[in-house]
Amino acid sequence: MNSFLKKVIGDKKAWKQLEARSKALPRDYQLVYNEIKEYMWNLWRFSASSGSQDESFATLEDLLHLFEAGAKEGKSVLEVTGKDVAAFCDDLFHATETWRSKLNAEIMKKLGA
After folding, report:
1. Which is higher by pLDDT, 41 or 87?
2. What pLDDT score was predicted for residue 95?
3. How many domains does the chain fold into?
């Protein structure tokens, strides 16, 4: 029970820290970060095999690091993502292949392939 509470409290604390960091970004970065986050939740929510909570958090943390670095260098957010933000998202999520691998493995297993 103690480890369960620690995990829940730790996850909540880490999430709040991540969100606080995102709110410290310039406004254009905040806007794109929030849109990407929404896209990610929808993508993973509607996929047959969504990534783990840890994987989702790690992806957002990686994105935040990238945005923080871009902002520090004085780049606009679109200089970081490119104008096709959806393609940027797809590339970002390909880096986290766990949910895709699980989906493909499950389909192959069920089809006996």
Report:
1. 87
2. 62
3. 1
